[in-house]
Amino acid sequence: MELPLTPLDFLAxxxxxxxxxVGVVDGDHRFTYAQFGARCDxxxxxxxxxxGVAPGDRVAWLGGNTHxxxxxxxxxxxxxxxxxxxxxxLAAAELADVVDDCAPVVLFRHPDxxxxxxxxxxxxxxxxxxxxxxxQPDAAPPRPPVDERDPAEIFYTSGTTGTPKGAVLSxxxxxxxxxxxxxxxxxTGDDVVLHTIPLFHVNGWGTPHYVTALxxxxxxxxxxxxxxxxxxxxxxxxxxxxxxxxxxxxLLEHPDLDRRAYPSLRQISVGGAxxxxxxxxxxxxxxxxxxICGYGMTESSPTLTRALDKPGEPSDPARRxxxxxxxxxxxxxxxxHDGDEVAHDGxxxxxxxxxxxxxxxxxxxxxxxxxxxxxxxxxxxxxxATVDPDGYLTIVDRSKDVIISGGENVSSVEVxxxxxxxxxxxxxxxVGVPDERWGEVPRAFxxxxxxxxxxxxxxxxxxxxxxxHFKAPRDVVVVDDLPKSGTGKVRKDHLRRRA
Length: 499
What we know:
Elements: H1 8-17, E1 22-26, E2 29-32, H2 33-50, E3 58-62, H3 67-78, E4 82-86, H4 92-102, E5 106-109, E6 121-124, H5 127-134, E7 151-158, E8 164-170, H6 171-185, E9 192-194, H7 207-214, E10 217-219, H8 226-235, E11 240-243, H9 245-253, E12 267-270, H10 277-287, E13 291-296, E14 303-306, H11 317-320, E15 325-326, E16 330-335, E17 350-356, E18 362-363, H12 367-373, E19 374-375, E20 378-387, E21 393-398, E22 402-405, E23 408-411, H13 412-420, E24 425-435, E25 439-448, H14 456-464, E26 475-478, H15 492-498
Parallel strand pairs: 1-10, 3-4, 3-5, 5-6, 9-10, 9-11, 11-12, 12-13, 25-26
Antiparallel strand pairs: 1-2, 7-8, 8-18, 13-14, 14-15, 16-17, 17-20, 19-20, 20-21, 22-23, 24-25
Helix pairs in contact: 1-2, 1-7, 2-3, 6-7, 9-10
């Protein structure tokens, strides 16, 4: 009998085979997989019985990396719902737009995060949430019928238009992504994973699923703090550490780094933005384990590549600093404007496209944007890369003008719209400039209206009042005009050179 592929199998396996294993550590809380599974059951009961969630309904979640959000990865699906984790770094107006788009039945919100001001029904984590779970029966809920191609999660991301788009990830894509990632990375049930990557961001890089499936240990971290990361790595015997470059830099700069040893660490993985070989080498030297780079995007669940050494070949740190090789289940192609594969010479550039069962089914309520990126059987990433003779990719540019700051995508168009909403601003263009800590930060060039004045600091404050603070320009340069092409488009390449 053929069974549907679903992440629910991972929870069922963990609670059946490893019930006494402490699988989740969150501050003073330590849950065995039996206890974790029971909490997922109660959440599913609450969603169905008390909150009116029907199959296919969306359940939104606003909170950091806590055990409650990890439970939602399975409990929402047990109720037949679709999990929509929300980015805690968005401003209230941005959150309200996302909630409007996905129309959840209920929003779970951590008390540390402000009410987005949307009329959706809310449950506040803490006493209210715990009382809701305590009121549910102990019996496991009936498992909902699952079509493996149905939506399981929706993660919102901003594209070049600045409009948030919800990438729909199916049960099948999440299941296969977890299996292929675990096999490629050599993950086992002995691994202890510290959740530094936000679980509201690009599916937590798949860690919620494959760590559970194998009976590994989840160590939760509500907010990234370099000192706490170093403490937990040592005290909880963490074996795998996942970072974006800004996190890596923060760890290297922290005074506690050299005060401890980290013998349990087996591997550090860095993604979210390109990583230089110098930073990679310093991470390896000071944390005492191999470091590799990787690449992916929300639309692909997310992992596409890992910069692993090839079997039977000498270890090569230069290779580990590249974007890497496709993981199992992924076919990548780097093509020119005519769709032809570029030469594998490490120099010729082309757009990365991907073909995989991990790829999203489309953008929620946005068929036009879906058709733009899913064409001819490929996911067109908009990222520009080279391929060396051994098949290793290296991302060299982003054709979408998306700025990656601290691992978060910042749409230049979205920031430009916020700037031009100021009554003194006529035109605005935003580009990314290198930053030692964050990888990139936005820099804005603005043209003021005739007879109007606005100080750069005032313009920055104006944007910060409307968007998440990490999206605001680090600096604003007032210019007489913006360089433009013959068709009137702003030449951002000129601005980048100037910046």
